[in-house]
Amino acid sequence: MKNFYKQFVKEEFDENGVLTKFELDLKDNFNFAYDVIDAISEKYPDKVAILWVNEKGEEHSFTYKELSEKSNQVANMMLDHGVKKGDMVMSVLKRHYEYWFLAYGMMKIGAILIPATNQLMKKDFVYRFKSADVKYIVATAEDKVPEHIDNALLEYDGIAEKFITHGCADGWIDFLSEMEKYPKTFDRIETRVEDPMLLYFSSGTTGYPKMVLHRYSIAAAHILTAKHWHHLDENSLHLTVSESGWAKCAWGKMFGQFICGATVFIYDFDRFVPANILKMIQDYKITSFCAPPTMFRFFIKEGLESYDLSSLKYSCIAGEALNAEVFNKWYEYTGLKLMEGYGQTETTVIVGNLYGMEPKPGAMGKPTPLYQVEIVNENGEPVGVGETGEIAVIAKRGEHPALFVEYYRSPAENENAWRFGMYHTGDTAYKDEDGYFWYVGRTDDVIKASGYRIGPFEIESILMEHPSVLECAVTAADDPIRGKVVKATIILTKAYKDKAGDELVKELQEYVKGATAPYKYPRIIEFVDELPKTISGKIRRAEIRARDSKK
Any idea what DSSP says for residue 420? Predict the structure, then answer.
């Protein structure tokens, strides 16, 4: 099982064991559900694929054989209920293990899965149903999800069947009990590696979510994620925190981890409680862990010394830029260096600190060998060392197996994203003399003040090191003299809640001046109780700017 993944890739390494070449080598009919889940099931039927635990302490484990059989039952069931190849099937399943049964069952049919978060409301469902022509839905009974969906269906009549789990509701079919009526075997339906397989609604920080369409090849592309970034093997027990509605679930517990033969640990929870996650790592002896920097900040504030994290052998970070202070504190306690990775809903790991690399605290890493990555100016030309530009992937639209196919039904978005023979990520960075990329911000978020270009992340990182700052967002604000100035919108920690005022503003301004070029300091500081965020938790700086412009 150790080298099972190698049948799908061609790779080379340097003398230090760092990956230098990585190319997909897939058959025309590659299908993850058949060629990975079923194939491993035949050779290693008793190997545990999933270990699932919820907040109540309930546990379920599923071997590769059981995962294969249950996805077969789902495929048989959904075919019987009318699902056809190419149909759009939405899931709203949180971190329930039923998600994995459904996902692989839909791959076997050739239907297109649309994962969605349980945080959606009626209007969100209406928009998604109509945009993608959703025909079937499988949802949790928790969090009033069926109620929001049923209300949305008053404005959309395209749903043929509704399936429910973790409870019941009128007019819904019980997913698990219905599934058990069907055979555990399934005859392969031929799909092509370039067929559409997965569609995500991206949680952009401006405008309506875009529909990101992926083909079957993206599953194998995540070998890079699991093997060379998460550094997994058949002995690993890996925890990625993401809920199933987000692309980070595909990154961390849906594809590459299984190809490497690892066991995926799923902690099904509703509210993020740092102590609970740390206890899971301690009690279940997690060996590999991946979460966004915000969670690591909360772990540090919780007190790492109260937990035995000695089982951890590797830790990765993604989802937002990493503050060097978080890197240093985590390393100080665990002895593990946080290996940052950067990518998007549209990609796998574009830039990262792969196994064997020496990470620089706060740096994104280097371009991964699956992609040709450049930092470019507005004309699509590469910029020099130390110069800020947009991160772009050199590739033709629809031809790279590890990039999304297109923004579904969005010709204008596609034209904007694919210019000068490359995919434009919308994120800016600069490259140092060693080839490491350093994140600056979204293209729309870069601040142009007094002739300078200022990246919000740098200022946010400095502010986050001050004990008074729990969360912050740095934006541009109008100024009658300078045109634009730097503004910091800050949520204070509990200890500083009653200290908000001019004295603390001055202290924070001097703190930034002491850590970077003085012209970058925030001339305006506003203390707030919350920051505007997308459903996935990304700060909506555009909303802050819009509010300020109306004042």
Answer: T
Mean of per-residue pLDDT scores for the chain: 94
Cα–Cα distance list, 107 to 25, 111, 247, 352 (Å): 20, 6, 16, 29
DSSP string, 218-243: HHHHTHIIIIIIS---TT-EEEE---
- State the Cα–Cα distance between residues 496 and 511, nearest whole angstrom: 16
CA nearest 216: which of 384, 29, 43, 79?
29
Quick one: tokens of 446? 């870069």
pLDDT tens, residue by residue, 153-186: 999 999 999 999 999 999 999 999 999 999 999 9
pLDDT in tens, 435-488: 999 998 888 777 877 666 787 888 988 899 899 999 999 999 988 777 789 999
Residue pair 241/290 in contact by the 8 Å Cβ criterion: yes
477/319 Cα distance (integer angstroms)? 26
Within 8 A by CB and 6+ apart from 418, the residues are 396, 397, 424
Decide: 455 and 541 in contact? Cβ < 8 Å.
Answer: no
- pLDDT value of residue 137: 98
Give CA 421 to chain center in angstroms. Answer: 26
Q: Do 224 and 90 contact (CB within 8 A), yes or no?
A: no
How many helices (H) and strands (E) are present in the chain, helices listed first? 18, 29
- In sequence order, the 6+-apart residues with CB closer than 8 A to the CB of 346 are 202, 212, 403, 404, 423, 425
- Answer yes or no: are the C-beta atoms of 318 and 343 closer than 8 Å: yes
CB 257 within 8 A of CB 227: no
Distance, in Å, from the CA atom of 134 to the CA atom of 487, rounded to the nearest integer, reads 42
Task: Determine the Cα angle at 139 with ends 407 and 248, to 5°.
Answer: 45
**What are the helix (H) ranges across 91-202?**
98-109, 122-132, 145-152, 175-179
Tokens of 498: 């009653």
Question: ∠69-70-73 over CA atoms, to 5°?
Answer: 90
The whole-angstrom separation of Cα 213 and Cα 221 is 15
Distance, in Å, from the CA atom of 430 to the CA atom of 364, rounded to the nearest integer, reads: 10
Residues whose CB is less than 8 angstroms from the CB of residue 406 and which lie 6 or more positions away in sequence, other chains included: 213, 397, 398, 414
Query: Are residues 163 and 92 in contact, defined by beta-carbon separation less than 8 angstroms?
Result: no
Rounded CA separation 116/264 (Å): 20
Dihedral of alpha carbons 444, 543, 250, 304, sign: positive
Q: Do the beta carbons of residue 64 and residue 102 sit within 8 Å?
A: no
Cα angle for residues 409, 411, 412 (degrees, 5° grid): 130
Q: Give dist(CA 38, CA 108) in Å, integer.
A: 10
Q: How many CB atoms lie within 10 A of CB 106?
A: 27
Task: Report the DSSP beta bridge partners of residue 367.
Answer: 351
Chain centroid offset of residue 60 CA: 25
Indicate the pTM of the whole model.
0.87
